[in-house]
Amino acid sequence: MDRIIVRGNGPLSGQIPIAGAKNACLALMPATLLSEEPLTLTNAPRLSDIATMTELLASLGAEVSQLNEGQVLASACHGEVNPVAEYEIVRKMRASNLVLGPLLARLGHAVVSLPGGCAIGARPMDLHIDALTALGAEIELKEGYLHARTRGGLKGAVHQLRFASVGATENFLMAASLAKGTSVLKNAAREPEIVDLADCLRKMGAQISGDGTSTIEIQGVDRLHGATHPVVADRIELGTYMLAPVIAGGEVECLGGKVSLLESFCEKLDQAGVSVEQTDKGVRVSRRGDRVKAVDVVTEPYPGFPTDLQAQMMALMCTAEGTSVLEERIFENRFMHAPELVRMGASIDVHGGHATVHGVERLKGAPVMATDLRASVSLILAGLAAEGETVVSRVYHLDRGYERLVRKLEAVGADIERVSGE
Ligand code: EPZ
Questions:
Q1: Which atom of ligand 1 is nearest to the CA of 373?
Q2: Which numbered atom of ligand 1 lies nearest the CA of 374?
């Protein structure tokens, strides 16, 4: 397995291009099932998760071709559609569950494997099931597969989510777009990736309003047509690379980034003593002094502090002045980066959903292990300013969500290389 070696190498400077959002693209791609006409996504990120979704859609009968080195995904689903999403593929990526709503809308039935848990939590599907049942689906669990069907097609309904689940909101949005009548989703997720999906569905002819707020209204239509849509910039990749010059020193401009997608995160950086400036090309970031101040963080659904930036913020707090408490309210097991950071000399106490970080002057490089996507990148960030060499193993986790990470950090002066392992 490949490893990445990072050596603390002083301040960074230059520009880092931000790619299209993984979490938007993974919701946009299944929308191809909603129409017989082609759906073309531009600004698509080149990631292994996108390859997995491509494999899944192909198994369902959709053709997805990667053009322009994978930055354009041209998909079409005009032939026979296979309603079965196999465990073999679904188990690789939780977002595979986003084919459930579109298959129900297109075919009136679907058999989708439960994704199974993952490193950061059990990640059940009850909110998806409740939402689609509200639209008239009958869903039962048999031998690890959700068997869903509708009698006479999906019908518009009013439904309130118990929790503002991103995936359940996306499945509901896609299914309701082709349901008969009007639907209203209350306590909907408000993430920018939801707005991006709604924008794309509207281009396909869907009638959706209120996306980005907690109440979304969808007027079902008989059919959707093809469209071309640019994937929104990845706010989590943006937040991740914004922390590189804060941890290592220097100044970096993240091209294509928008501060407006990360207001809570930027407020915390401001409190910690970080300068963030929106330029016409992107977001310019630098540390105001030699050391940031410790700040407390609570992860919440958007527009709160993103759970997907909690591990990266913890890496920054390891060398902050003072003590920081990070509370993880979204996932039940998302502190697996903490023991690896402790191996690098960090002082972190984890109790349940709280991690207390006592800042130290400097971390020391060490061999560490990636456990999930965002934990792995937090170790890379920590290595940028650590004394000596940090060797991160199991970097396949990184390839799920960060395209060309080594090249992007090398370009701003980081001493980083990827070595292929046995
Ligand atoms: C999306 O996951 C993202 N993934 C996650 O990013 C992100 O962390 C998460 O939203 C929260 O923002 C994609 O968009 C592909 P949820 P999703 O449904 O939709 C519980 C990354 O690193 N829940 O909002 O699965 C669930 O267990 C990934 O890029 C239920 O209990 O998130 C979790 O604790 C990680 N029942 C919480 O809700 C359900 O039916 C948030 O889940 C569904 C979810």
A1: 22
A2: 22
In a shared domain, residues 216 and 271 = no
Q: Give residue 116's pLDDT.
A: 72
Contacts of 334 (CB under 8 A, 6+ apart): 120, 121, 307, 310, 311, 328, 372, 374, 375
Retrieve residue 204's tokens: 């396909």
Cβ-count burial 101-120 (b if 16+ within 10 Å, e if not): bbbbbbbbebbbbbbeebeb
Which residue, judged by its Cα, is nearest atom 32 of ligand 1? 166
Do 286 and 200 lie in a common domain?
no
> Is the predicted pLDDT of residue 286 greater than 90, yes or no?
yes
CATH code: domain of residue 147: 3.65.10.10
- Say how many domains are in the chain: 2
Q: Does position 24 have pLDDT exceeding 90, yes or no?
A: yes
Pocket of ligand 1 (CB under 6 A): 22-23, 26, 94-95, 121, 123-128, 163, 165-168, 307-308, 330-331, 373-374, 401
Taking the CB of residue 9, how many other CB atoms lie within 10 A of it? 14
Amino acid at residue number 99:
V
- β 12-17/250-255 pair status: parallel
- Per-residue confidence (pLDDT) for residue 404, from 0 to 100: 96
As given in the structure block, the two tokens for residue 23 are 């979490």
Active site residues: 118
Using 50, 70 and 90 to split pLDDT, how confident is the model at 422? low
> Looking at 175, 210, 230, which one is the last position of a domain?
230
Mean pLDDT score of the chain? 96
Average pLDDT over residues 94-114: 96
